[in-house]
Sequence to fold (443 residues):
Amino acid sequence: MELKPQRYEDTVVLSPTGRINHATSDVFSTALRPHMERCAAGQDRLVLDLSGLEYISSAGLRVLMLARKQAQTQGGTLVVAALGPMLREIFEISRFSAVFDVYPSVRDALAAISPLALAAFERG
Amino acid sequence: MRVKFWGTRGSIPAPLDTRALQAKLIVALTLAAGRNLDTPERARAFVEQELPFELSHTFGGNSSCVQLDAGGEEYVLCDLGSGARVFANSVLAAHGPGRGHVYHVFMSHLHWDHISGFPFFMPAYIPGNRIRIYGCHDALEQALRQQNAAPSFPVDFSRLGAAIEFVALEPGRRYDVAGFSVRALRQFHSGDSYGYRFERAGKAVVYSTDSEHKRDDPAETDAFVEFFRDADLVIFDAMYSLADAYSVKEDWGHSSNVVGVELAQLARVKHLCMYHHEPIFDDARLGAILGETRRLEEITRQEHRVEISSAWDGMEIAV
Fold:
């Protein structure tokens, strides 16, 4: 499991890859932590680009739920985007799709949360 | 061995109401339009063979009670929710009140939905019956005595005619009861609950209800995987969605279909049966959840396939 960050102005896009399961959820949690500390009112907005994720287990989903709670508490913005077919089904069945703001693509997510970041994204 | 479900609803009995019944009838009659159903036999065949489960059945409303029937003379039950009344009546209907029986009952915990059937458990009133109630809670006897006492119930526990014994169990230790080797595991639930693994003649059935899995402690996961390992059947508390269990219903002591599938896959369980259904869910909702859970098992399957079912009052599973 890797977590690749990419900054677009006031927004960081994080792109985990591979599988997040009971054996790797701690690694994911640790990698996410510094970004979550800056996911607060007036600081970074976060987009989790899940297009490269092959699988996420309930342990990984717990990390996401805790991150969402932390973002809410800090007044920050955390959304998810670009779920592949399996992730989309896991989000539906677990009802995470009812809790998270889910966007079809990173571009759609940036358009919804930050015009500045969208402009930077489109400039490449 | 056969596993018989007498009560499958969580938290409180939830009977089917008129509105829900009429909604089923309306759809069923619509599906029957133009069909020749002018005899009871034809109508029965239509109901049993052509209507979907959610129309021809109900998941039911009685609270927790499951029977493990290995064909022996003595009865083995898990929990004494309102389903225990139906079980007891079936025994009396089959054998009458004159013949004494031995009942072994394993208690997951002592919340009302798991004990409320006992005041209406007719064998307790009949001399000649022997009822052995097993559990890991210190308050096991106290909880059942308190329930059969004024001002909550008119018949005091001391007036029950059967010989009733309470047997304290230690988690992790093996016990031999009625031909089963039984082991308990402590589970996360308010006041603790205990799962039971029953083994007999090379078969294993796990009863694991009222158990929250936070999935943040690998040791806890390992303990349950070991407890479920290679079981022929795991009866699993799948009351909430995973999102609810991690958010608004965190620490309410229940689990989800998603965690059930994962643990069953890790433990190479043969059959996962969802249990302790949310009382606000109607039959259509529970049927939809069953379909989704089967789909989850399919898309996340590696090499081991887990059969998925959802318990209903009256269901039987051959193990």
